[in-house]
Amino acid sequence: MLSTLKSGVLWRFFYETKAIASTTTLCIRKCEQRRKLNTTTRIFSDKYNIILMGSPGSGKSTVARILAKKLNRPSIDIDNDVLEPLWGVKVSEKLKEKGSKYFIEEEGKALMTVKAENSIISLTGSNPLHDDAMQYIANTGYVIFLDYPAKGILERLHKMKVDRIVGQEIGTPLTDILDHRQKSYEQAYDVRILCEEDDSPECVSEKVVQALKVLEDDHGYVSTRQDKNSVGSQDRTSLGEILLQGLAPDGGLYVPALQIPCLSKGEWSRLVNLTYQERALRIMERLINPCDLHPSKLRLFIDRAYNTETFSSEKIFPVRHLEDNQFLLELFHGPTASFKDGALQLMPQMFVDALRHNQPLNNNGRYIILVATSGDTGSAVLDGFRRHAEGSGVGVMVLYPEDGISEVQKLQMTAMSGGNVNVLGIEGDFDLCQSMVKRAFRDPDLASWLSANGNLKLRYKNAANSITWGRLLPQIVFQVSAYLDLVEQKVISVGDPVDVCIPTGNFGNILGAFYSQAMGIPFRRLICASNTNNTLTEFINSGMYDIRSRQIQKTQSPAIDILKASNLERFLYHMSNRDHELVRRCFKNLEENQCFEVTGQLLEDIQEFLVGKWCSEAECAQTIKKCFEKTGYLLDPHTAIAKFVADLVNDGDVPMIINATAHYSKFAPQVLQALGHKKDIKDKSVSELFDMAHKITDSPSMHCKLEESLKSLSVSEKVLNPSYEDVERAIKMFSHKI
Fold it and tell me: Which residues pair with 366 in a beta bridge?
């Protein structure tokens, strides 16, 4: 694991996938031990050590002594209590005698002699550089990473008159060593503590106590229709379990049992100058118990999901100025040119991991996820599972209405057929596709056949659609990141208010902004922009959710052609102070009577958080044309809905972030028609329309990945008659490929 650069002046430490896997396996083993005991983590009542890790100068020893008093545990300082008594010389003398490389080996051997329980252990800054020793000590408890800002570390080391640390040779800047140390720390912790530059050891110790308390109290996830007073009286429901289930057994949606964590202004400031991947890790590890998904594995998943091979922007989801106080959060740089890529490049990895760790031992089960789609979800699900789940025993079959989606959406999906994904057109509408999926899922004969012929099981679309918590987590991240980008661009300072306007159908994306707000991002107003299917607008303004006399109107913004906004249930749950009875009553009424109503203080609270407006088809087209003529930027119809509403409610007092949820080229016919090219586009192919749009503007630039997939020669389109027997036969044939 240790090697030198050719110059011989700088040690570099490379951690292979094997090291990540061993660390993660270690965490899983600890988690299983806790579940056997009492389904909760029991940090304070068991014999687990609390192990502090961090750079030299991060105050580990001082924090350990404070924690020892707070928690009434013995404190062990590896430098003073282990190394020097064992070696009989000062640590600095041993380093001088052995040199960095052999010192780390000797130090690792010494760490593996420690026998301790229920103690606070402060590691040396170089302990994490020895894999075997870290695995040994990590198995005795929780590793807490005191992640202190590099600037503060350098200042502290200067005050301590420390100008060299283990691994540093003459002429090597200390900043380089700290940077490489950080990479080794990143693979070894269970819990990260984001320390601020002016944090005192007392403040850091309190953050550690609070973080441990969160783990102690974490009961996983609960249903929106579950009595909050019953939490803790039953087995803990893990992230993996809810990813596999989708809906809760009582029909509700899963939410964290604990309150959403809130970060301080100083903690948010630590994230401003980080990459999108680094921000995503730090945000999501605050939302995910390390026993459910260890940070080292989460980092691996994030790096696989968000990179320039998959996304056409290095910023992943960049924020750019549009006009005046308005900024666009461009969510369309992923492989299928839709905001859904943000979740569906990450969620399949989490889903496969959940399958591996939640199915019975020695059960090499395989799964087919059935999805019915009316648009973008199908291509995003296919791409995500094709990239990240092939060879895992998980396959995806998507059914779409042959005449019910756009030519672009159809080409996107059919170009991806093959491997562990399959696409089938159905001669019928979306409702028919949906009924086929439901019937297959409930078919006992099909289930028996799949089980007998390859140990296969069907998973319903809940495993991949927008109601699963795994889809919401990444949406929280990109809403937070948009705010941090405005800080990085010096448009605002941390803590300044910002409005956000989101084209909203199933309420998932705006719910991500709501959770971001709960985490401490100062979104002043969450503006919900609807098209003519404006049930959400009506609900926000009146408290009445009524679809009795409504039918879905097909519009040029199909992703928000939704009457039942599923994720609204989560929002009502939180706004009503987790009133499960109210939530159950509302959505039972919606199911049975097609309506429900909220009044009084609850409605006032909702209206304090949300602004609801809508946009007609004519106004949408006019907005596309007007925005292009004024700014040169070409909006897709969904983003145009948000832009129209943003203009409607904009008071100019604070910056406005508009979610640009799709690339205009996905809707080239509608966009070109809005620009006045109605006659020019008649009878033209998708490729010709792309070329026309490309010649009109390069703002935003053409989506090259989308263009490549649509011009692919490997399109495989199969259309079935509206017959369940044909669908059943196709499922059986596909099962042999998984």
Answer: 456
Identity of residue 349: Q
Which pLDDT does position 84 carry in this prediction? Answer: 94
Question: What span, in angstroms and rounded, lies between the C-alpha atoms of 415 and 400?
Answer: 14
According to the model, what pLDDT value does residue 22 have?
46
Pick the closest to residue 125 from 180, 200, 88 (CA basis). 180
The CATH 3.40.50.300 portion of the chain extends over 2-217
Pairing of the two strands 326-330 and 319-323: antiparallel
Alpha-carbon 308 to chain mean position: 18
Per-residue confidence (pLDDT) for residue 132, from 0 to 100: 94
pLDDT per position as a tens digit, 513-531: 999 999 999 999 999 999 9
CATH number of the domain at 2-217, out of 3.30.565.10, 3.30.70.1270, 3.40.50.300, 3.40.50.1980? 3.40.50.300
* DSSP-based three-state secondary structure for 262: coil
For the chain, the 3-state helix, strand and coil shares in percent, each to the nearest 5, are 50, 15, 35
Evaluate if residue 24 carries a pLDDT over 80.
no
1, two tokens: 């694991």
Q: For the structural domain made of 493-654, what CATH number should be given? A: 3.40.50.1100
pLDDT tens digits, one per residue of 585-627: 999 999 999 999 999 999 999 999 999 999 999 999 999 999 9
Gap between the Cα atoms of 417 and 76, Å rounded = 58
CB 398 within 8 A of CB 382: yes
Ranges in the chain annotated CATH 3.40.50.1100: 493-654
Contact 137, 48 (CB under 8 A): no
Mean pLDDT of 371-395: 86
